[in-house]
């Protein structure tokens, strides 16, 4: 299967989700329900199985370093640029940086990795990097700016692995790999069946979410300016994969490793960006539009990147 043809099922299932939502076949809550199913059940099962079966020595250190360099560069530029270019308040800057450089490694990353890369091993490492390193930095900054006294709720940050099923499943998978623990055949078979639903359900949910158009509650000062969306989109879909590619070349990655790093770096803005913006009440309009715009355009930019590297 060529790299371009690998995207065809992704486009088809996304279109099916959009059409089903448009024609009212799945109900108004389809995108939300499917998204929760993927996030809380199917996706954790897929990541747990991938990590539990991968030896710790198999972690791609140089590839993950190249991805990490691109993430740090783009998130940092977005964080600073939100203030320097668009005058965003301190509390909004972490969301701006997250919108620019925090990839959707779960809902869209799993089907992309499965179809284009053939497995989710490197994607699982990306998930760990984001949830164990990048997410705490973002949440600490948001906590600090949301508290009148500038305090950080350490207990809340520390409990994140327990409250987030993706993080919990990833940590359990690493623990099983490190200890050599094997699940009973019945449990393993059940998780395999559940993980098989992650890709199609995630893509149908993606299509359904693209059809939803909710009116923005943001005031004039909070509205996402077209220039802001253009910069965020350029950082997310162009700058981050280009930086990842340059870092990969400098680290002498092989062609398959470069493809994996660039494809993962080119994934769109994660929905967690909007979830965190809602929870802390900052940058909601920017986060919402960034997720929609980058998700819509990413299927084309990812296909182009995969074709060039292929």
From TrEMBL:
Compartment(s): Cell membrane
Protein's name in the database: AEC family transporter
Family classification: Belongs to the auxin efflux carrier (TC 2.A.69) family.
Highest taxon above the source species: Bacteria
InterPro entries in the record: Mem_transp_PIN-like, Na+/solute_symporter_sf
Annotated membrane topology: Multi-pass membrane protein
One GO term (biological process): transmembrane transport
Chief place where the protein resides: membrane
Pfam families recorded: Mem_trans
Keyword field: Cell membrane, Membrane, Transmembrane, Transmembrane helix, Transport
Gene Ontology cellular component annotations, sorted alphabetically: plasma membrane
Protein's organism: Micromonospora jinlongensis
Transmembrane portions of the chain: 29-51, 63-82, 122-142, 162-183, 189-208, 229-251, 257-277, 289-309
Lineage of the organism: Bacteria, Bacillati, Actinomycetota, Actinomycetes, Micromonosporales
